[in-house]
Amino acid sequence: MSAAPVSGSSRYLVLAAMIFAVAMTFIDQTIVSIAVPDIQRELSLTTTGVQWAVNAYLLTLAAFFAFGGRLADTVGHRKMVVLGVLIFAAASACCGFTPQGSLAEAWLVAFRAVQGIGGAIMFPAALAIVVQNFALRERGRALALFFGIAGGLTAIGPVLGGYLTEWTWRAIFWVNLPVAAIALLLIALSKPVTASRPAPMDYRGLALIASGVALSVFGFQQSQIWGWSNPAIGLCIAAGVLLLIVFAVVEKRTASPLIQVDIFRIRAFSVQNLVLGISMLVFVPVFFFSSEYAQISLGDSSANAGIFLLYFFIGFVIASQLGGRMLDRDGAKRPVVIGCVLAAVGFYLWAGDATTLRFGSQQWDVVLAGAGMGFMLTPASTDAVNRASRLSYGEATGITQTVRNYAASLGLAVLGTVLVTELRSRLTDSLVAQGLPHAQAVSEAAHLSQVQARSGGGSSANIPQFFRADFAHATQAVLYWMAAIMAVAAVVAMIGLRPGVQAEIAAEEQQAQPTADEPDRP
């Protein structure tokens, strides 16, 4: 049966250990993007190489989450957390020691991919440990701390990356080593005990889902490099989706599947994953786009661009705690709907003020947008895992994280296209207004819009005023899209979720757990 929640301060020591463990995975989602210009310059990387220094991590993280969740449930959660921390830390050290020369590009991309695998093994196991060590009525508050602190570190990444890059870009990888050491120490002290369920690994299912997610995410990632008109983009995405459909059919006929697809028959689990998928179109991309906006339109340094996101982080963390408490008291529907609405309003107001080029007029919009995301993300994620308690927590977490990362990749691709398209149109008009022939203006705008990501990070004096204004208008379009996306999430949550606390249902499901599980005591 499932391990009984422990009592006393030891639960919070376990929680602290798991937060430190997953902190590295959240920080690395955004910290590298700040250092990209320095990495490319020092290592002489190609444009494709530097793109993959960012994308390889996100791709393997998305592709192997389901595997990590299943592995945690069958081998043992604590074992997988420790293994994931060690893999992640070792890969981080290797990234920091990337040699200069012809080997640099392959070395950095390869170890970034290994980082992603380590994170995919670690995260589902860590969340499962937190869930199993807290009683159902306390999970909202506990996971509010987990997601609030760990998720907020996504916003800390650019801040930390900006300051570390001023010393050396290699430090953005080395910073993971002391975090990993603290995590391992806390795990040794807290000795979390969880339940595991030995079962054969479904390698056929693993090959199908990893290939399907990797191919389609690859297509999304390459869309801004190759362009949506390139047939290879559609082919990659279509092939990936087809493999995922085959995976679902095969899993239905597999005795010990990687994922029990019947889990999606649980209404709340399916709806919460849909809400999470929609909101993730916004949550990770907002850090990339707002960082570029701060550097290009506001002319901030990379460090100050990170501080820009701290306002989002402040709103996120505070509202996350409120949303978690509301989940424990009233159920998930109210905080999820309220959070989606607040986020939609926040992004809408932020979009309206983005073209002022003054952060003072935007800061409360940013706080409100962050608060909305924090208010809904913790209850939605917690409710999804709780509702799936008849199945295993690691497996359920692997599913939710696969959905979240898949959607984040799609959001980056689609919203990135919106940004570039709008920027190109604005730049063409600006260049024509300055007397450039239309055909030449179109060509020059296309060139400028392709190199815009490398235009920030310096003084605003180095960026033409018309470019700053045009980039602000392009960012405004993205923020309006984000507002619309969160409004859709609010409608889905309003229609799909049912009100009320789930304690009675979840308690029955807990009692229905198989009795063959053994305590995970490595």
Characterization of this structure:
The structure is a single chain. This protein is an all-alpha fold and 522 residues long. It folds into three domains: 1-201, Growth Hormone, Chain: A (Up-down Bundle), CATH 1.20.1250; 202-257; 262-512, Growth Hormone, Chain: A (Up-down Bundle), CATH 1.20.1250. The protein has 17 helices and two strands. A two-stranded antiparallel sheet has the order 1-2. The protein is globular and about 70 Å long. Mean pLDDT is 83; it is low at 1-5, 453-460 and 504-522.
Give the C-alpha Rg. 22 Å
Number of strands: 2
The overall pLDDT, averaged over residues, is 83
**First CA to last CA: what distance?**
18 Å
The main β sheet shows up as: 2 strands, antiparallel
Q: What's the CATH first level of the largest domain?
A: Mainly Alpha
Q: Choose one word for the global shape.
A: globular
Task: List the total number of helices.
Answer: 17
Q: Superfamily at the CATH H level of the largest domain?
A: MFS general substrate transporter like domains
- Structural class computed from helices and strand pairing: mainly alpha
The SSE order reads: HHHHHHHEHHHHHHHHHHE
What percent of residues are in strands?
under 5%
Q: Within the largest sheet, what's the order of strands? A: 1-2
Low-confidence stretches: 1-5, 453-460, 504-522
Corresponding CATH architecture of the largest domain: Up-down Bundle
CATH topology of the largest domain: Growth Hormone, Chain: A
Task: Assign a percent range to the helix content.
Answer: over 70%
| Count of individual domains | 3
